[in-house]
Amino acid sequence: MTTEQRSELRERMRQEIEVLETNIARLEDGLSPVAPDVAIGRLSRLDTMLNQGINQSSLSQSRTRLVRLQHALKRINDPDFGECIECGEAIPIARLLALPECQMCVECAE
Ligand SMILES: [Zn+2]
């Protein structure tokens, strides 16, 4: 990996982290509990609960991804960064740019 590629990748990770942090904050705002006496029908209350379920799962996915990205960003200067943890081959830069937190090459990931 060249120095330019590394800094491009670092920039990419920072952007992704920023987007994720914004999304997580938004999801958390949307997760306020449904007030029991709100004048909404039974069905719309069910809708709200359903939506909250969806928010809850994308929230936990976003959090997991955020932790992985932060971890990858910390390791980006390590000599073995960008190597597949399974086979030790260098992960192609295109894959890393598309999925900066990945730790395996395409073959091993499958
Ligand atoms: Zn591999």
Automatic annotation (TrEMBL):
Keywords: Metal-binding, Zinc, Zinc-finger
InterPro entries: Znf_DskA_TraR
Ranges annotated as dksA C4-type zinc finger: 84-108
Top-rank taxon: Bacteria
Pfam families tied to this protein: zf-dskA_traR
GO molecular function: zinc ion binding
UniProt key word Oxidoreductase: no
Domain Zinc finger DksA/TraR C4-type: from-to ranges: 80-110
Protein name: TraR/DksA family transcriptional regulator
